[in-house]
Amino acid sequence: MQTLTALERAALMVPDPIIVAHDVNQTMYDTLTPNPVDTEKYDLGLVPQDDWTATKPDWAEQLTAIFRAVRVKYPVLPSRPTQRDVAATVTLPLSTTHQLIVGRIFSPSLRHALKRRILGSTTKVPVRHHN
Predict the structure, then answer these.
(1) Region of residue 77 (phi > 0: left; psi between -120 and 50: alpha; otherwise: beta)
(2) What is the DSSP letter of 80?
(3) Cα separation, 96 vs 99, whole angstroms
(4) What is the pLDDT of residues 6-34, one digit of tens each?
């Protein structure tokens, strides 16, 4: 049986970035279409305030729905966005919101992996002396 190093175990705990990005985009699509965005017009370049005249309360509700849906698969994501998240993303393209959510998923995972790596590197391992 092969024993994994602390770094290898930590790497296994970090989700695949391509899969996470796809899952977040799919959730955003599922949440925003067909209302308020027409299915054929969905694009990460859309800006909520400009493209479907979202107000901050509307966007807060939609963004919260996105966070909750993504959190089902990635529980490290907070259950709701902060008011700062809402204010910062309502006037920016959906790609920014996508990056924000993906970043929030990886931030705790990477912190945990680094913590494990640091703890693993400071743990004393007995040294065998060969005569």
Answers:
(1) beta
(2) S
(3) 5
(4) 666 655 667 889 999 999 999 999 999 99
Q: How many structural domains does the chain have?
A: 1
Reported residue count of the chain is: 131
What residues have CB less than 8 Å from 19, skipping those under 6 apart? none
Residue 8 lies in a domain: no
Asked if residue 50 is part of any domain, the answer here is yes
- What is the Cα Rg of the chain in Å? 20
**Domain assignment of residue 31, given as a range:** 18-120
What is the CA 92 to chain-centroid distance, rounded?
18
Instruction: Identify whether 44 is part of a domain.
Output: yes
User: Is the peptide bond prior to 17 cis by the omega test (within 30 degrees of 0)?
Assistant: no
Residue 125 in any domain: the answer is no
Structure confidence by residue, pLDDT tens digits, 45-64 = 999 999 999 999 999 999 99
